[in-house]
Structure formats: structure tokens, C-alpha cells
Amino acid sequence: MAGTQTDTEQQTPRPVAAPDVTIVAHDIGAVGGMERQLAELILGLRRMGHHVTVIARTCELPPDPGIDFHQVRAPGRPFALAYPWFMITGSLAVRRHRRGVVQATGAIVLNRVDVVAVHYCHQVGPASASRSTALFRGHVKVASVLKRAGERLCFRANRPAAFVCVSHGVADEMREHFPKLADRVVTIHNGVDTEAFAPDVQRSEALAARASLGIAEEELVAVFVGSEWERKGLEPVIRALALAPQWRLLVVGGGDRARYQVLADSLGVGRAVHWLGVTSDVQLAYAMADAFVLASSYETFSLVTFEAAASGLPVLATPVSGVRELIQDGQNGFLISREPEVIAARLQQLADDPGLRTRLGGAARESALGFGWQAMVSSHHGLYARLAAQNGK
Questions:
Q1: Domain identity same for 127 and 87
Q2: Sign of the torsion formed by the C-alpha atoms of 88, 90, 96 and 101
Q3: pTM of whole model > 0.85?
Q4: Model confidence pLDDT, tens digit, residues 126-137
Q5: Torsion of CA 237, 362, 188, 152, to 10 degrees
Q6: Is residue 358 in a domain?
Q7: Could you list the residue range(s) of the whole structural domain that residue 72 is in?
Q8: Which of 124, 274, 287, 377 has the fewest CB atoms lying closer than 10 Å?
Q9: Quick count: other Cβ atoms within 10 Å of Cβ 73?
């Protein structure tokens, strides 16, 4: 009979449609956790058949006929000027170029959008200054006020269908500070590239890089990755180094290097700290290391912790958002405090037991495999398809 389905047709799942998607962000590219996350999301959506419109200040992606980039001409700094500037010009660009399901990366435009990706809830997130000058600290306070006001304005005025939070901790913060939006809050964890970040990646290059720093193959090396060094706990890590002299420390990221070098020199470990700066080749830093350490007071997901775990490093990290969802103390890493003595004790434990380093690193790798890029992209794909069906897009 015409119009009836066979049993085979009824049992065969229909493919989920790949609606057009617009991603709005300040910057997209290879450097920076949020920027890399967005780049991988867009590339993953393309592989699943989505046409993606990108509205951003900068976008570093390979050419693709299915990606339309519309540049928002706005300054990148100072934030107190750049943020409201982008909010105005970006809103105009969204009004003109939006296509399909629209996702904004935080409270950055005034348009009504379908999804807000929440990488950071500024109502609770701390304002930390990476430089110590009074002018810079004042700018950080002004920026914090602007971010909080922007969230209240954009989130409450536009009421998107979904607030996609990068960890359960951020989702809890959103429900606490925006209780009327609680039913729209969902968690889609950030992803990690488990192929690029893997044990023995760039091993030969890593040995050469260690040698160039005067680090012998048998010496133990811990790696610290991130900027905003005060919040991420570089000081207690350096202090711990003085209590665990078997270790050297690689510091990847930007900050007040002179201040922390003075600290390291005063503790007698100045020559054990190696400053690698900001780099897009962070895989090499993990490959050079025997352990990863991060004593952060606040994180939303801590992508670098997941990268280190995927690289097979034993992880020493404070139990902040994201880390709590990855690390089980003593099984695939150690949950630490910001006390130098606690950090040093765990470093000493790893130094004394090479087998423990191997076991924790292997277990960390296994845990990280559950947070691959494809899982993150597939979750977004499903969300966009549902919203498109609901809205007829």
C-alpha cells in the first residue's frame, strides 16, 4: 500500500539533519583554550555536513567552501574598549550575516541567539591581574564589571534556548546566578585531541629540546601550562620545586616572568625553571615532561589538564571544575592543594617510584579518551538539529 513503511524502513534510524550554524566569537584559532575549542568545533561540524558561518574578530582556519567568515573589525585590547566595541559591531554583523542556528560564545552580542556557549561564568569567576601595576589592576577590575554587566544584559534580555556549559561546575554556577534560566542550562564538555596529544608524540624532538635547555634525559621535568600565573598557582609550584630538588620545571604561557624569576632565584631554584613562553606547539612541552602540575584556584574546564592526561602524564592538579570530572585521586593522578608542601610531597612520591608515574600516566590517558573531540562535536550536532527542528530552521 502506498505510503506505508516496511519493517526495515521503520527500524532504520533516519540520519540527523545538519542545519546551517552561525558561530559568533571574539577569536578562533590554534592558540588559547577557548579559541582552539571553537576551531575544532567548527571543523568537526563541517565533517558532519553543516554549513558554518563564522562571525569573529579573527579566524585562523583552513580554507573551506562550507565556512563563511565575516570579520568584525574591532580592537583586541584594551578589554574595556574592545568588549563594548565588539558587542555593538558584532551585533550588527550578526543581524546582517546570521544563518541557521546561531551560537554566541558568551555574552558578546545583543541579538537574540539560539545558544550561548558558556566557557566562563563571570558572576563568580575571579578577576586576576597578570601584571602588578596599579593601572593594570584597575583595568582588570573595570573589565570584570563589564563582563558581569554584559552577562546580565545579554542572558536575561535574549533568553536563548540553551546555555551550553563546558563543565558541571560552570553549569552549577549558571543555575545559581541565573536561577530563572536553570531549565535551559546543559553541559557539553570541552573536547581534547587525543591523537595530537598522545604518549610518545614528538619524542625525538622532545629529547632534542630538553638537551637544548641543558636538561639530561634522566632528569625529571614537570610542566606548568597557562597564563594568569597568580590564579593558576605558579608561585606555589615554584616554592614546591625548592622542596623537591630532583625536578625541573617548564613554564608554558605568558605572565610577569621577571617577578617569578626573582622568586625562583630567591629560593635557589632559578636555574631549574625554564620559560618557554606562549606557543602553539604545546604538545612538545608535554612530550618533554614527566609530570604535569597546576595549582589553580579557579578553572572552568582546564583544557591543559585534559591535554596533559591525554599525553600520558601523571597529573597533579587542584580539584577545580573540569579536573574533578577527570581526575580520581591516586588512580589517574593526584588532587592537590595550593600548599607548596603538598605539591612537593606528591612530586617526591613520583620521583621515588617510576612505576607509579607510568601507572598514573597510563590511567590518565585512558580517562582522557572519553573526552575526545568527536564526542563534543556530536553533542553540539544533536543540539543544533533539535533546535533547528523546533524553530523550523
A1: yes
A2: negative
A3: no
A4: 555 445 567 666
A5: 0
A6: yes
A7: 17-191+373-388
A8: 124
A9: 9
Contact 171, 186 (CB under 8 A): yes
Low pLDDT (below 70) residues in the chain: 1-16, 125-133, 135-137, 139, 393
Same domain assignment for residues 106 and 237:
no
The CATH number given to whatever domain includes residue 299 is 3.40.50.2000
Q: Which pLDDT value is given to residue 176?
A: 95
Cα dihedral 285/288/294/298 (nearest 10): 20
- Looking at the fold, whether 299 and 339 belong to one and the same domain comes out as yes
Torsion of CA 72, 73, 78, 81, to 10 degrees: -80
365 and 381 together in one domain: no
Statement to judge: residues 270 and 324 lie in one domain: yes
- Report how far apart the first and last C-alpha atoms of the chain are (Å, whole number): 32
Residue 12 lies in a domain: no
- Encoded amino acid at 95, one letter: R
- Strand order of the sheet with strand 67-71? 67-71, 52-59, 21-28, 101-105, 115-118, 162-165, 185-187
* Domain-embedded: residue 89: yes
pLDDT tens per residue across span 149-164: 888 988 877 777 899 9
Check: CB of residue 347 under 8 Å from CB of residue 293: yes
The domain total for the chain is 2
Contacts of 293 (CB under 8 A, 6+ apart): 222, 223, 224, 237, 240, 316, 317, 336, 343, 347
| Cα–Cα distances in angstroms (integers) from residue 341 to residues 1, 5, 220, 240, 298, in the given order | 78, 69, 18, 6, 20
- Do 67 and 111 sit in the same domain of this protein? yes
